[in-house]
Amino acid sequence: MTLTVSQGEGLTVITVASNPKSRWPVLCQILGFLCYSPVCSVSQDIKKGQLKVVHTSFGIVQMLIGVFNIAVGIVFTCVGLYYNMYRIAQGPFWLGSVFLVAGIVCILAARFPNFCLVIIGMVLHIVSAALAITAVVLYSVDLANDHTEYCETYNSYYPSYYNGYNYGYGYRTPSPEMSRRNDICLHYRNLIEMIFRGLDIMMIVLSVLQLCVTISFCVLTGKALCKKDEDAKSVEDPELHKPILEDDTAGAA
């Protein structure tokens, strides 16, 4: 596909010659040509693969974090922790979806490096950084609260007699069977709390890792784009780099 631009008085005509052998529609061919045009070129560091491995690694890590978030949301929902999911605003699902998309875009930017896709990736990673901080807050809130109901206590007040007007209350001594059931309840309750609090701590650590990955991606990609601008300036203005001595010698001759 070739593109030509002709300008007149107040008029600019852009002519695009499509590829008849291509199976893609004309609109897709135009978008593909624009993305791979010199305007959308990127630094040689990205093209030659210096950052390809790094971007691919970042993408895989973010995809795994996204899958873990969605899996935690599914676990919370399946075991009936609806109030906990409501308390954290269904965060595991939409946070995991955004992290997963960010990882996919990161891998695409490494596989098909062009300016447009890299910019989209940077914007998406900035959003992911903000959501990673949000994830830390949400999982911290869930960590500070209980995930299970309290066990029934058998040594509390209970109605011991009725005097015709109201009930009298007193303490009762739990039977051995009641004590055994209460101990079993407390054991499994503490075990379940330990498991879910461990999941919350794991997701907080992964959210911090997500924040570090997004910041690293933006910093490395921003440096590569700035280097691309510097390379473009050095190519566009070769006269600025000619030595002054050469001009003096030419004038003397």
Q: How many separate structural domains?
A: 2
Which structural class matches the secondary elements? mainly alpha
List the total number of helices: 8
What about the largest sheet? 2 strands, antiparallel
Broad shape: elongated
Strands of the widest sheet, in order across it, are 1-2
Helix content: 55-70%
Roughly what fraction of the amino acids lie in strands?
A: 5-15%
Cα(first) to Cα(last) distance is: 49 Å
Unreliable runs: none
The number of distinct β-strands equals 4
- CA-based gyration radius: 32 Å
Mean pLDDT: 78
Helix and strand succession? Answer: EEHHHHHHEEHH
Transmembrane segments: 63-85, 91-110, 117-139, 201-220
Subcellular location: Membrane
Pfam families: CD20 (PF04103)
Region (Disordered): 233-253
List the main descriptive attributes of the protein structure presented here:
2 domains, two-stranded antiparallel ribbon, mainly alpha, elongated, 253 residues, 8 helices
How would you summarize what this structure contains?
The chain is mainly alpha-helical and 253 residues long. Helices cover 66% and strands 10% of the residues.
Describe this structure in words.
This protein has helices at residues 26-35, 44-47, 52-78, 82-87, 91-111, 115-143, 176-236, 244-252, and strands at 2-8, 11-17, 157-162, 167-171. It folds into 2 domains: 1-35, no CATH class; 44-152 and 202-235. Strand 3 (157-162) and strand 4 (167-171) form a beta hairpin. The protein has 8 helices and 4 strands. With 253 residues, it is mostly helical. Helix content is 66%, strand content 10%. The mean pLDDT is 78. Strands 1-2 form a two-stranded antiparallel sheet. A two-stranded antiparallel ribbon has the order 3-4.
